[in-house]
Amino acid sequence: MYDYIKGRITRVTPEYITVEQGGIGYQVITPNPYAFHADEEKQVFTHLHVREDVMQLIGFQAPEQRELFRKLITVSGIGPKGALAILAGGMTAQVVAAIEAEDEKFLVKFPGVGKKTARQIILDLKGKLDGVTDEVVFMTEADPEPALDSNHDLEEAMLALTALGYSERELGKIRPKLEKESLENTEAYMKRALALLLKQG
């Protein structure tokens, strides 16, 4: 129904962004809201998710992310929240590679994805993801730097990860590492946290 919305980002929260266009503020749920920045003009590629009890506008930075999202929600056991958690790290190419390589260990690291669901993702999507790639810069190991006493960006990243379904226990394991790093913004903390979460286990 809607291919994209082009407008000004007026609000960024741990779960959604607000995109203003034509005097209307559209609430758009995204994999990583902190990939967007308040007061910037942005084109957001959208998917309208409709159920009996809810209508949600889900947004992505690139059409390739949206395409992978649409593929993932066709898999039994994967709903919109689970698909968003898989896409939150901006690692579309890695997710596609894991599916094609039948790498269950990589897939089960996402919240809500157990061995059965990982196998179902591979069974349903392997060989059907041609063209679903994006230009992503993957996280690399960085030398830890001293943390600030109070880190608002880190706290926002933790809230966003909780909204995606990561448990306090999982986040507690990586938090000490993140507190030793001084990253530039919430998006950077999100990406670093997701990279650490995927290395666990």
How would you explain this protein's 3D organization?
There is one protein chain. This protein is of the alpha+beta class and 201 residues long. The chain has three domains: 57 residues, OB fold (Dihydrolipoamide Acetyltransferase, E2P), CATH 2.40.50.140; 63 residues, DNA polymerase, domain 1 (Orthogonal Bundle); 48 residues. It is built from eight helices and five strands; from the N terminus they run E-E-E-E-E-H-H-H-H-H-H-H-H. A five-stranded mixed barrel has the order 1-2-3-5-4. The termini are far apart. About 8% of the residues have low confidence.
Summarize the structure.
This protein is an alpha+beta fold and 201 residues long. The chain is built from eight helices and five strands; from the N terminus they run βββββαααααααα. The protein folds into three domains: 4-60, OB fold (Dihydrolipoamide Acetyltransferase, E2P); 63-125, 5' to 3' exonuclease, C-terminal subdomain (DNA polymerase, domain 1, Orthogonal Bundle); 152-199.
Describe how the helices and strands are arranged.
Blueprint lengths: L3 E9 L3 E6 L2 E6 L11 E10 L4 E6 L2 H10 L7 H8 L4 H9 L3 H4 L7 H11 L26 H13 L3 H12 L6 H14 L2
The sequence of SSEs as H and E is EEEEEHHHHHHHH
Task: Find the structural class using helix and strand composition.
Answer: alpha+beta
Strand content: 15-25%
Rg estimate, integer Å: 17 Å
> How many independent structural domains?
3
H/I helix tally: 8
Question: Main sheet, how many strands, which sense, barrel?
Answer: 5 strands, mixed, barrel
| The CATH H-level homologous superfamily of the largest domain | 5' to 3' exonuclease, C-terminal subdomain
| Shape-level CATH architecture of the largest domain | Orthogonal Bundle
The CATH topology of the largest domain: DNA polymerase, domain 1
User: Which CATH top level class of the largest domain fits?
Assistant: Mainly Alpha
Q: Report the average pLDDT across residues.
A: 87
Q: Biggest sheet, strands in spatial order?
A: 1-2-3-5-4
Annotation, overall tally of beta strands = 5
CA distance, first residue to last residue: 40 Å
Helix content: 40-55%
* Envelope shape: globular
